[in-house]
Write a structure and sequence with these properties.
heterodimer, A: about 240 residues, alpha/beta, six-stranded mixed beta sheet, three-stranded antiparallel beta sheet, about 35% helix, B: about 425 residues, mainly alpha, four-stranded mixed beta sheet, 16 helices, 4 strands, elongated
Chain lengths: ~240, ~425
Amino acid sequence: MTALSLSQVSYQYPDTDFPVVKDVTLQISRGMRFGLFGPNGAGKTTLMSLMTGILTPQKGEIKINDITPSDTMKYRRQFGYVPQDFAFYPELTPAENLEFFGAWLGLDDKQIKQQTHHLLSRFGLWDVRNKAVSKFSGGMKRRVNIAIGVMNNPSVLFLDEPTTGVDVQSRIAITEFLLELSLQGTTLIYTSHQLKEAEALCDYIALIDDGKIIACNTLSHLLEKDHVATLEDLFLKLTGKDYRD
Amino acid sequence: MYLFWISIKKEFIQLSRDRVGLLLMFVMPVLLAVVMTALQNSVYRMVNENRINMLVCNNDTSGQTLTFVGALKNSGMFSIQVAKDKSTAETEKIAEENDALVILTIPQGYFYNLQKQVAQRSAIAMQGFGLKEQDSAVITFDSMQLQLMFNPVLQETYRYSIKASVNGVMQVMQNRMMIDQLYRSINGEEIPQDVAQKLMPDAISINESTVHAGSIPNPNSTQHNIPAWTLFAMFFSVISLGSNMVREKVSGSFLRLKIMPSSLSVLILSKQVLFLAVTLFQTVLIFSIGRWVFPLLNLPALNLPSSYVSLFVVSFISGWCAISYALCVGIIAQTQEQANGFGAASIIILAALGGIFVPGFAMPELFKQVSYISPFKWALDGFYNVFLLNHSLSKIFLNILPLLALIIILQIIIYLTLKRKNLI
């Protein structure tokens, strides 16, 4: 079963000469832990923005669970999104943030209460549920950010560098949580520069450079094919060592 | 509806925890209203209520000087102190000690001389009426005059007023003396008091009222400052609401909400509803302070208008205009510094032009014309019309029409900017 499909997707920003995403085609199966990697400026963020509907491709088609972005509200209900930024309200408590975003995700009062209790307990934030998030550590804020992204039990979850700036304990807790979600059938679309973490989390890898997918397969297959030991070696072999920004 | 209320709740929580924003929206305008009213009130009182200190240097010994000084006191314009038989140097010293702005010197024998002049004029009148034979005696008038010395700080208009007042009192006295003299000449006896009263009524009564048509009367300090600083408070929500918008954009929450299965217009609407409620609360708070707290501070109480509907409509439209402006600034600004800096500076400039700091009637002519570009001016005129002229809703329509037009323009800018930034 395909959870997410991209067919010949291209995108060019206004006032630029070349497209940043060029004819990208991907098929991501349900329950897959899909890692999207590439150097800075390769087109990862743009591709993620296209998949989440922030941007609209000039060419090609994107579907999540066979629903296209033109069916706006239905499309948006299919996925969750965990941005790299702390995209929530620091003046509010974690419980208040989850209540607000839960309502925006279309949940009713009862569902919000259940999910808030479940997620705050799961992320070790229940005891501080009534404390303003602005007073939290970086790791706690990261966990709040992820909790908001999974409030509606999405079938596809987009994660943009979800563990940036967290300590080992928080990183392990987040990784374990994501693996748990995957076992329950959630498809993970993950981007990061933490390639060691990606090796532990992702079972399918795509490398993007200059707007094109240059490699896409299971991690073991790619490592074997290119005769390298780690994802980092593969990354450097395919994208080179030159600065990209 | 659930989403709307949750959004209002979130805005309310954010606002209630924004201490700086609350200080700027509530405490600062209240303090400004109190301080500015107190300062302007002293000026208004000096102009309208304070009596001018006058030192009367009396060198005349007749009893009529007492009548004259009494009449000057009764004019209500002067606070009078009398110095008798002093030299010029002594008079000036006393004037300085008593902050006297005017010295009125009555020369020695002034009223005796005046009485003589009155007797001569009376004789002429009697001859004219044919009640007395022609007298061949030459009539001469001594040129004895009252002398007024003004403190140089007194403006020309004050000097005219003082001269007119002294002249008025002197005219009344001369008339009375003339009537007394004529009566004595005709009847050979003193005029009875009741006859004199009938011939010389105490004062000519003049009805005073305010011109309404086409112009707004000058307000007192409270009637100006309470609506003025309420408007300032409303528009200063740009600091809280503008920053709030910028934070949401910069943190990525706006983008996160954009890809959620709900419409962002709910968020924009909830912000407007909550902050509009805040502006109405500001109005109630500041107006209440003007009505009930100002008298305790020895300041004039705010007189509430008869039409509460008109008051509500002007407050509502002014508040909505302020909120639309704040949202517009918040959406266009890229950073909090831009929103706060531009927001605060633009509000202060528009407030100054619109007559918040200095009432419009006290502005130079050029600035009076320029003030029409400021929404503060339109809103303030609306409040003036409600407070000072008790205008009904239909009559304040012309005041709120430009505000409504501005609201529509600002809302269109908000929509187009959100669209251009790919946020809706």
